[in-house]
Amino acid sequence: MDPVILLIESIFYILFAVALWRYLRQRTPVDLGVAAVFSTTAALFLLSFISAYAPGLVAIVRPISYAALVAQPYLIIRLLDLITPVPRWASWAALGGFLVVAGGLLVSGPRSLPVILAAVAYFFVAETMAALQFMRLARRRRGVHRLRLTLAGLATGLFGLVIVIAGLGSASGNGGGSAPGVLVASRLLALVAALGYLAAFAPPRWIMGFFHRAAAFDLARSVVAARPGEGSPALWGQLAEAAEAILGATDVRIVDTAGREVQLDRGSDGPSPAPSTSTPSEARRDRTSEVAVGLDGDGGSVATLYAHLEGRPLFVGDDIAIVSLLGSLTARAVRHGEDLARLQATALALEQAAAVRASEARFRILLEADPNAILATDDTGRIGWSTRSSEELFGFNAGELTGRELATIVDLSRVEPAPASADDEQIRWVETEAYRADGSVLPVELALRHIDIEGQPTTVAIVSDSSWRQEANEIRDRFIGILSHELRTPITSIYGGAQILMKRHSLDEPTRTELLAGLADESDRLQRMIENLLILARVERGAEFFEARPVLVQRLLAQIIERERVLWPSLTISLDAPSTLPVISGDEDQLTQVMRNFLSNAAKYAGDNAHIDVQVRYAAPWVSVTVGDDGPGFPSAAADDLFSLYYRAAGSEAASGAGIGLYVCRHLVEAMGGTVWARSRPTGGAEFGFTLAPYLEPDDDVPTTERQRGIAEIPA
């Protein structure tokens, strides 16, 4: 096969595969339209493979392939109609041309001269109109979106030209083969058209990222720069104007995380576009769409930008990426602008302090109310005064900060010196570290501004604790990781098993029993995970669990083990508990959770056919419960870490779990006044246990009364 033809076919197959994958992932009408357009060329090129490997099917497949190719102009007109309204006469004309040419091909064959001329005219008119429509759409877009639409238009025009040249060449040969020169020209144009489609519809990610950053940089200079004397409404207004231009939107609004619409100040030169006044049939309101762009600032989501579009957009992902970058820059600019306003107010108050002595006390109160640390240093870098928040942040007593060098409590090596041409009062922001009095290091944000107070150069520093952001991100990522990984597996298994049981009535009884057992196992796993997550949430917010109540531990353990034997039929679980145990102080529900976690942990790590023994002993003043197994055990050095949150011992990758069960056990037992431990058994395997105290009535003076002993001796 000609390598040029093979390259062209490969590119169009790639385009069809990418378009089909995007449709299967998103299932939007536009993605379906793109997949339909490229399916026509894929169907045509399939004919060459059939000719080579199954010649007998050529007579059957050739009419279908030709009909699919002829459908390409109509399908691309339909795709454009999804993006932006196309005149109805154009859609009907494209459909009519398809029916006429396809009918001619089926009746007279592809070598009929009238059919060839009709196909040439049909492709020339439809593809030219589609190319011009792509170009018209490109003029209303910006950045990489404009480039991709332009490439799509050029590729469409070239593809139509290829058909025209090939058709005219065939017509000049009276339906026979085309001249060699015509074949070379048509193949080269087809290759250029294929590459154009590839660059428009399936560009590499790194190229798209480069264009997004370049476009964001160019637009940020005009969007993020605040107008003199104006605040955040002007910044948000400029972002809205840019979003309307980039997305081609008729209306843009910005809503903060609390659901309130953000005030937009567009200025006198940037009014919002007037709403469309066309009738429903003209505007085709069923074609309108809305895109939402999340705007992230330092530390998380700040707001969401909503843009209303006419039609269903193509390549809107490029525009969203640019608007998202601009939104992040704007959010940071708004935040820094607010901090700048606060610094300017502080500097102004300092400059007027000599003339307005009476207002110094009120000014000091305002500074003390600021949760951030605010300090002022002289030209040598020594602290002249500081707020109470500064002393609390750095851990010093009152007055101990005065006279110290700022560089001894804040790492100033990351602060870049101001350029020689810059304003002396320019504010510089940096993320750095603070050194506390106890020797600990704290991540902070530092803002510096140089001012003059009564002719004395002074530097105002605002230090903000930023450790909460890192902790919040870690907690969020950790919790999301648990939900996305641990909860998905049992839910998927339960759903799949239930679907099979509902839809397949011919399953034999062993298969149904196996499916039901699997559903029960996954349901129990899901229940345990949810219970552990609920307890974990209560632990992290410091909530109380229960009030101490008397518990017959031997009876409770017998009930728990009986249930667990049903869930783990391949295991041998034994209980050794004397009948004379005292009543312990605890809570039955929480003790059940602890024992289920211990037994589940032993079952997972000991493996099938393992032996698990549970022993209960009383040695005043404690009742101890141990769960031992004959599994592989764990390194002795990891014993203390096993009860830490999300900890997984080395070599435990094969066992499922998120590492929260033992953490929950430790907190539950400690809340009941006991202790937990873990150790390797001398004979092999692992042993986990806990101790709890006997129950005492509020007026009892001794650990175990005669009444308690009598209750404890009731058989379990």
Structure description:
This protein has a 5-stranded antiparallel beta sheet with strand order 5-4-8-7-6. Strand 2 (289-297) and strand 3 form a beta hairpin. The chain is flat, with a radius of gyration of 37 Å. Helix 3 (58-83) packs parallel to helix 5 (113-139) and helix 15 (509-540) packs across helix 18. It has helices at 3-26, 29-53, 58-83, 88-108, 113-139, 143-172, 180-201, 205-223, 232-247, 280-283, 316-351, 360-369, 388-394, 467-503, 509-540, 553-567, 588-606, 661-671, 706-712, and strands spanning 251-256, 289-297, 300-309, 373-377, 383-386, 428-435, 441-453, 456-465, 549-551, 572-576, 584-586, 611-619, 622-629, 675-680, 686-692. The longest helix is centred in the C-terminal third of the chain and has 37 residues, at 467-503. It folds into 5 domains: 3-203; 227-342, Beta-Lactamase, CATH 3.30.450; 352-465, Beta-Lactamase (2-Layer Sandwich); 470-540, Helix Hairpins; 549-712, 2-Layer Sandwich (Heat Shock Protein 90), CATH 3.30.565.10. It is built from 19 helices and 15 strands. It is an alpha+beta fold and 716 residues long. The protein starts with a helix and ends with a helix.
Secondary structure layout:
Blueprint (H helix, E strand, L loop, with lengths): L2 H24 L2 H25 L4 H26 L4 H21 L4 H27 L3 H30 L7 H22 L3 H19 L8 H16 L3 E6 L23 H4 L5 E9 L2 E10 L6 H36 L8 H10 L3 E5 L5 E4 L1 H7 L33 E8 L5 E13 L2 E10 L1 H37 L5 H32 L8 E3 L1 H15 L4 E5 L7 E3 L1 H19 L4 E9 L2 E8 L31 H11 L3 E6 L5 E7 L13 H7 L4
Parallel strand pairs: 10-12
Antiparallel strand pairs: 1-3, 2-3, 4-5, 4-8, 6-7, 7-8, 9-11, 12-13, 13-15, 14-15
